[in-house]
Amino acid sequence: MKPAWDKLGDEYADSSSVLIGDVDCTNVANIEMCGKLEIESYPTIKYWMDGNVKDYKSGRDYATMKEFVEVVLQKPCDVITLENCNDKETGYVKKMKSKSAAEREAQLVRLFGMKDNDMKGELKTWLVQRTFLLTAMKEKKDEL
């Protein structure tokens, strides 16, 4: 799991909303903290959300952990203000704002139809991002 964890950490190294880190609970200096977090076996993955510590209970491979970060932890792109949006998301939101609600819905249906297709990781990630953006636009249609 360590290579996948390190890869995930490298990917989010510059993130303003996600921190991927690790603590060696076999190190005497960390025993008190590890005890407070109730870490009893290794590796144990914890995450913080809204000030609460939670146990991560999903897969330990890179793809599963990355999806968890994207879906659960990462602050989403705000389709109204474009806050937390990268350049690609910003361009997509601007493009889709110029479309009608029916056109955006058709695009969302098309993307959902593709989600189980075999594709490279980057493409799968971008597909998931677009479905989140379109879903957010649908939910906030009165504010667009």
Explain the layout of strands and helices:
Blueprint: H1 2-11, H2 31-36, E1 46-49, E2 52-55, H3 62-73, H4 87-97, H5 101-114, H6 121-139
Q: How would you describe this structure to a colleague?
A:
The structure is a single chain. With 144 residues, the chain is mainly α. The protein has two domains: 1-73, no CATH class; 87-140, no CATH class. It is built from six helices and two strands. It has a two-stranded antiparallel ribbon. Strand 1 (46-49) and strand 2 (52-55) form a beta hairpin. Helix 1 packs across helix 3. The longest helix is centred in the last third of the chain and has 19 residues, at 121-139. It is elongated, with a radius of gyration of 18 Å. The N and C termini lie far apart (42 Å). Pfam families: Thioredoxin. InterPro entries: PDI, Thioredoxin-like_sf, Thioredoxin_domain. Keywords: Signal.
Key attributes of the depicted protein:
144 residues; 6 helices; 6% strand; single chain; 2 domains; two-stranded antiparallel ribbon; mainly alpha; 2 strands
- What is the strand tally? 2
**What gross morphology would you assign?**
elongated
Radius of gyration: 18 Å
Estimate percent helicity: 40-55%
Protein name: Thioredoxin domain-containing protein
Keywords: Signal
GO molecular function, one term: protein disulfide isomerase activity
Family: Belongs to the protein disulfide isomerase family.
Summarize this structure briefly.
With 144 residues, this protein is mainly alpha-helical.
